[in-house]
Amino acid sequence: MTNYKWIYTLLVTVGLLTTGARAVADDTSREVVVVMSAESGVESMTREQVEALFLGRAHRLPNGERAVPVDQGEGSPVRDRFAREILGRSSAQIRSHWSRIVFTGRGRPPRTVEDSKAVLRAVTEDPRVIGYMERKFVDDSVTVVLEE
Amino acid sequence: MNHFFSWFLRVFLALAGAFLVSKPAWGQAPKEEIWRFHGYGTLGVAHSSEDSADYVAAPMKSEGPGKTRKWDPYLDSVIALQADARFNSEWSAVIQGVVERQFDQEVEPDLEWANVRYDVTPWVSIRAGRIALSTFMVSDYRKVGHSYPWVRPPAELYQLYGLTNSDGVDLIYRNSYGDVYHTAGMLYGRNEMEELDGALQSPNMWSVYNRLEKGPWALHTSYTSTKLEYGDELNLLWDAYDRFGPPGEAVSDRYDGNGKWAEFMAVGLQYDPGNWFVMGEWGMGDRQTAFDQRSAWYVSGGYRIGNVTPYATYARANGDHVEADGGLNPSRYPPEAAATARILNGFLDLSQNFTTPRQDTISVGVRWDVRPNISLKAQYDYVTPRDGSIGLFQNFGDFESGAPPTSFAPPPDEADVVSLSVNFVF
């Protein structure tokens, strides 16, 4: 059967594509932390709670308020790291996940802001906002509710 | 094709185009916007080694790779645009237009869904309009190639129930118990099946579904009851049987599904901890006629290595039709009537064969996420019809030239199908 040759070629291609594993330099100031306003009254959250909010499964904060999750721009290193370390998924998997929800009219992904500074602004403006940023941007106005 | 939809889609495309040009960095706005525009698409080609029949691996299609075309671009290709609106925390709306090759062998736009939603509480919403059906685990997004690993959902199961939407109302209930997320829905509506041009429609349907998610686990169950009404073309067979008097009327009584409620149920289980996944799904349809039950299931698994996901699937379709019960006994009639009876019985068997394929498929494939919103897929299917069934290798004929269906061809023992696709969302 000539298709064996085709499958073999495919497997070799897959092998070649995946050998380029990337090394990620670890540096605590680049760690991603999940934050809310210091006035939100929320002290900490579990990974599952954060995951549920950012994947659109749940819409409420632990204090019962409606949650407003805020994402960073697609392709930004902070977003990729948040996806990998907190949500445990690749950016591609998350995009697939949201396409299932968006294209069936069941919801829309969190709104996005430019960078960690913009997340800081959004969080301090509204106690219902939950976002993530690099640790070095954390100041007194926010509470870290979850770490990597 | 309804002129309103065509008009609507044109306006929608123009709006979407204007939006793309004026605001390339969409989704970057700091404030929640009322309207958002999205789209998805798949461009695919499929090739089948069987050239006496088409491999019709999607419901609501009447052609595929094989006899009609060696390389078929229509089986998997689709493009869609969507606008969704959130007016406030209670009211929202969604409208989606899809362009694809339809059953009537024309590439046409259609309104996939368009509904208004009201969130009564954070846990309960009601919707009215054209609404997605949640029959299968991936049925409400089965046209969104980018959202699942395969080139297309396993055909053995997904051909059992081809409808993807209903015009009516539904109620959705969402809750969480600790880390268990629960969604339940109830739907009532109708589907005129415009793509079938009146050959078949459902004036009433209702459906319930239930979905439980806990960490990597997801369990989906559904039950759908669909009232079916057939057009005049399909009633010709029953009329012909009726002319044989009481024995013929008995046959059409047993087999005619007109006005009956076809039942369908499905159960799906998925485990996806992130780096790999395994899922399985089973479904069974009962047309409440002597055509009897048909069922299918599949299991599929894949492993994610960076952005590359090799996967494999085994799928099987079963039909319970008893041929001994198939129609009139020709030996009881004089030669001419016996010949007619044999032809009618042949049509009956053919209907059975078309609607209840018995077939197994082993698939291997790979999905490569080139970017978060673009994926390439390649899939090989080893398809084996069994027990005398033609499987999904069917010839509906060429609608434009009026060439008739030629389905008495001997079924293939096996066929190799190769498919390639590019999938995107924006």
What would you note in describing this structure?
The complex is a heterodimer of chains A (148) and B (426). Chain A is an alpha/beta fold and 148 residues long. Helix content of chain A is 37%, strand content 18%. Chain A has helices at 3-18, 47-54, 77-85, 91-102, 116-125; strands at residues 32-37, 68-72, 111-113, 129-134, 142-147. Chain A has a five-stranded mixed β-sheet with strand order 3-2-4-1-5, sandwiched between helices. Chain A is globular and about 60 Å long. Helices cover 15% and strands 46% of the residues of chain B. Chain B contains five helices and 20 strands. Chain B has helices spanning 3-22, 155-158, 232-242, 246-255, 335-355, and strands at residues 35-48, 54-55, 71-72, 78-86, 91-101, 107-119, 124-132, 165-177, 180-191, 200-214, 217-227, 229-230, 261-271, 276-286, 293-303, 308-319, 359-371, 374-385, 393-394, 415-425. In chain B, a hairpin with a 2-residue loop joins strand 10 and strand 11. Chain B is globular. At the A-B interface, helix 1, helix 4 and strand 3 of A face strand 1, strand 4, strand 6, strand 7 and strand 17 of B.
**How many beta-strand runs of chain A?**
5
Instruction: Indicate the multimeric state.
Output: heterodimer
Residues in β-strands, percent of chain B: over 45%
Number of helices of chain A: 5
What is the CA–CA distance across the termini of chain B?
A: 27 Å
Helix and strand element order of chain B:
HEEEEEEEHEEEEEHHEEEEHEEEE
What is the element string of chain A, with H for helices and E for strands?
HEHEHHEHEE
Q: Which ranges of chain B are low-confidence, i.e. pLDDT below 50, for 5 or more consecutive residues?
A: 20-30
Chain pair with largest interface: A-B, 44 and 56 residues
Order of strands side by side in the largest beta sheet of chain A? 3-2-4-1-5
Net shape of chain B: globular
Q: Strand count, sense and closure of the main sheet of chain A?
A: 5 strands, mixed
Please state roughly what percent of the residues of chain A sit in beta strands, choosing from under 5%, 5-15%, 15-25%, 25-35%, 35-45% or over 45%: 15-25%
Structural class of chain B: alpha+beta
What is the 3D shape of chain A? globular
Count of strand segments of chain B = 20
Q: Spans of chain A of 5+ residues with little confidence (pLDDT < 50)?
A: 18-25
Cα(first) to Cα(last) distance of chain A is 50 Å
Overall pLDDT of chain B = 86
Alpha carbon gyration radius of chain A:
18 Å
